[in-house]
């Protein structure tokens, strides 16, 4: 397998995600499968890398939310093709299960959906509770799935305050669960104040935070 | 003879001379102290005209704000069009109502009620306006507000679909916004007919945090223009979130004043729009009024004054769990402001 060919296809996946060209992503993903290239590498170095660039374009206000959503669709077009071919041997150790949702009173879920997508890209199993999720549902889902991580999202300062209570309740039921928080008004400081174990500034960084958390859990 | 609060607020909005700058806002300013005064539950005040009026009046009485404003939740028109309102009646925490069941897939799903003035809670809000008018006579202006069609669309139509269609299927978005615009024109008319003295049009869904300035110009601006043209009362155009790149457009939609939040660089906005523009804003309602120390309130209010606002407004609704004392500091500072046009 030529290194150049791999690079070529990963670059194609990356660019097609950035250009939000679903068909182009799908075609490149299919080529990866047909040519026996490692699907997981293609996901990380092609699709995820593309989405990281999309994040930069969004931060610099070249892309806005409609573009980001279309890029996410393009990414999923590739992910759907590649995921069944991913070989997780040796990789499960740093993956895990995540419960994710937007706290009660808050219906903004685009950010949460992007984080969910990145978790899926990285091979986590995601239990998505959606938006406007009552506290107790986070607790119930974490218990019933025995998830390693609960990721809480809020887009408004006022609904963010509900995270504090959620974290207390979750830790009461299961002191070992790792809690990650994120969303527009959330900062590292607030995450610490609320007793969260991790804080995600953006979708890409949510995954690296989660990997750290799962790593920490595995050593307990 | 000194001007009344009503004269001051309406002159403020219209950019006319003032003998004193009024402490005001264009959107909800209910506080817990007010709810307690009238023995009200937040989840219920949206559902009863007297309670809604009392909650609004309380802030005037306790804090000295000069604008009683109704309604408080953003669901009135969505509900009138068929969506379900969730007031979280069983929640321990204070939550603003949200909408359930986004029922719009195409413009055909939007059916305007034959009599908007009597649809859903429109008559309830109208009654609250009337109660406030009777109560405050000619001393205070009763304010009301409506959403812009883009923001309203996000309540009744899947947001992902709305945003992607803005790029991929603009005709579909246009058809939906056209109908919602007609609905909003009727809602504003109902409130003005009930006696509302000024109206704020809130199009926060179109912030540059979400939509490109180009998309704002192409997809949102003209609908705001149409609605504002139909309103026969002093009017304010409000967008919270990032607005630096669209202030010139905001100033062109036909409102008497614009309202922006803490993300706006007001000094730069003032540069762009010139000394005659009426700019209202832009203190962070939560970080400053709710969570801030009195010192922080003073600092941030002064910043807004120095940046060149015509009056200091909160950047959005005042969060109910806000201390009256912080708001009183703000009210006093506004009263001590030098009017940009002195009467």
CATH architecture verdict of chain B: Alpha-Beta Barrel
Structural class of chain A: alpha/beta
Which H/E pattern describes the elements of chain B? HHHHHEEHEHHHEHEHEHEHHEH
Tally of separate helices of chain B: 15
Percent of sequence in beta strands of chain B: 5-15%
Query: What's the tally of helices of chain A?
Result: 10
Characterize the overall form of chain A: globular
User: Taking Cα atoms only, what radius of gyration of chain B do you get, to the nearest Å?
Assistant: 19 Å
How would you sum up this structure in a few lines?
Chain A has 220 residues and is an alpha/beta fold. Chain A is built from ten helices and five strands, in the order H-H-H-H-E-H-E-H-E-H-H-E-H-E-H.
What is the fold's blueprint, element by element?
The complex is a heterodimer of chains A (220) and B (343).
Chain A: H1 3-18, H2 22-34, H3 39-59, H4 65-82, E1 97-102, H5 110-121, E2 125-128, H6 135-145, E3 149-153, H7 157-160, H8 162-173, E4 178-182, H9 188-194, E5 198-200, H10 203-218
Parallel strand pairs in A: 1-2, 1-3, 3-4, 4-5
Helix pairs in contact in A: 1-2, 1-3, 1-4, 2-4, 3-4, 4-5, 5-10, 6-8
Chain B: H1 5-14, H2 32-37, H3 42-45, H4 49-63, H5 76-80, E1 84-86, E2 98-100, H6 122-136, E3 143-147, H7 149-156, H8 159-168, H9 170-194, E4 198-202, H10 213-230, E5 235-238, H11 247-250, E6 257-259, H12 266-273, E7 279-283, H13 285-290, H14 294-307, E8 311-314, H15 324-335
Parallel strand pairs in B: 3-4, 4-5, 5-6, 6-7, 7-8
Antiparallel strand pairs in B: 1-2
Helix pairs in contact in B: 4-6, 6-9, 7-9, 9-10, 14-15
Explain how this protein is built.
- The complex is a heterodimer of chains A (220) and B (343).
- With 220 residues, chain A is α/β, with parallel strands linked by helices.
- Chain A has 10 helices and 5 strands; from the N terminus they run H-H-H-H-E-H-E-H-E-H-H-E-H-E-H.
- Chain A folds into 2 domains: 3-85, Methionine synthase domain (Methyltransferase, Methionine Synthase (B12-binding Domains), Chain A, domain 1, Orthogonal Bundle); 92-218, Rossmann fold (3-Layer(aba) Sandwich).
- In chain A, strands 2-1-3-4-5 form a 5-stranded parallel sheet, with helices on both faces.
- The radius of gyration of chain A is 18 Å and the shape is globular.
- Chain B has a single domain, classed as Alpha-Beta Barrel (TIM Barrel).
- Chain B has helices spanning 5-14, 32-37, 42-45, 49-63, 76-80, 122-136, 149-156, 159-168, 170-194, 213-230, 247-250, 266-273, 285-290, 294-307, 324-335, and strands spanning 84-86, 98-100, 143-147, 198-202, 235-238, 257-259, 279-283, 311-314.
- In chain B, the strands form 2 sheets. Chain B has a 6-stranded parallel sheet with strand order 3-4-5-6-7-8, sandwiched between helices.
- Chains A and B meet through helix 4 and helix 7 of A and helix 8 of B.
């Amino acid at each position: 397998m030529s290194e150049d060919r791999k690079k070529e296809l990963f670059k194609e996946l990356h660019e097609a995600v950035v250009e939000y060209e679903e068909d182009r992503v799908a075609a490149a993903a299919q080529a990866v499968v047909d040519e026996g290239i490692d699907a997981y590498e293609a996901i990380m170095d092609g699709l995820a890398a593309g989405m990281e660039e999309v994040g930069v374009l969004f931060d610099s206000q070249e892309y806005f939310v409609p573009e980001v959503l279309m890029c996410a669709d393009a990414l999923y077009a590739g992910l759907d093709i590649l995921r069944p071919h991913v070989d997780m041997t040796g990789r499960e150790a740093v993956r895990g299960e995540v419960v994710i949702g937007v706290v009660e009173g808050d219906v903004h879920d685009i950010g949460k959906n992007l984080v969910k997508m990145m978790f899926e890209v990285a091979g986590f199993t995601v239990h998505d509770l959606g938006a406007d999720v009552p506290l107790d549902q986070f607790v119930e889902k974490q218990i019933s799935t025995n998830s390693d991580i609960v990721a809480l999202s809020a887009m408004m300062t006022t609904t963010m305050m509900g995270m504090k209570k959620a974290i207390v309740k979750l830790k009461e039921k299961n002191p070992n669960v790792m809690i990650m928080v994120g969303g527009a008004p959330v900062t590292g400081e607030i995450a610490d104040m609320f007793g969260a174990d991790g804080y995600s500034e953006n979708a890409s960084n949510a995954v690296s935070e989660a990997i750290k958390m799962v790593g920490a859990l595995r050593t307990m | 003879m000194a001007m009344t609060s009503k004269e001051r607020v309406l002159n403020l909005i219209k950019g006319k001379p003032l003998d004193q700058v009024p402490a005001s806002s264009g959107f909800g300013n209910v506080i817990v102290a007010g709810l307690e005064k009238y023995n009200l539950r937040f989840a219920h005040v949206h559902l009863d005209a007297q309670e809604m009026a009392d909650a609004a009046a309380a802030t005037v009485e306790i804090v000295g704000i000069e604008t009683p404003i109704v309604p408080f939740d953003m669901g009135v028109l969505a509900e009138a069009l068929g969506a379900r309102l969730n007031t979280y009646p069983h929640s321990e925490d204070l939550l603003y109502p949200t909408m359930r069941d986004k029922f719009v897939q195409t413009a055909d799903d939007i059916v305007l009620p034959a009599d908007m003035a009597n649809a859903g809670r429109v008559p309830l809000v109208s009654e609250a306006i009337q109660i406030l008018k009777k109560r405050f006579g000619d001393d205070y202006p009763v304010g009301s507000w409506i959403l812009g069609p883009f923001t309203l669309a996000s309540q009744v139509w899947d947001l992902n679909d709305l945003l992607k269609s803005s790029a991929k299927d603009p005709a579909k978005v246009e058809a939906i916004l056209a109908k919602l615009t007609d609905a909003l024109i009727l809602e504003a008319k109902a409130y003005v007919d009930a006696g509302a003295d000024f109206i704020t049009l809130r199009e926060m869904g179109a912030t540059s945090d979400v939509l490109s300035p180009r998309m704002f110009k192409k997809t949102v601006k003209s609908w705001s223009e149409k609605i504002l043209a139909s309103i026969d009362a002093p009017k304010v155009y409000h967008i919270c979130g990032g607005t630096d790149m669209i202030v010139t457009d905001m100033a062109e939609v036909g409102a008497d004043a614009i309202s922006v939040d803490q993300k706006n660089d007001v000094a730069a906005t003032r540069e762009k729009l010139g000394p005659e523009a009426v700019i209202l804003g832009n203190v962070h309602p939560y970080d400053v009024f709710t969570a801030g120390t009195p010192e922080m309130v003073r600092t941030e209010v002064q910043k807004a004054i120095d940046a060149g606002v015509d009056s200091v407004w909160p950047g959005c609704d005042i969060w109910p769990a806000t201390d009256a004392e912080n708001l009183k500091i703000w009210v006093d500072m506004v009263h001590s402001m030098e009017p940009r046009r002195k009467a």
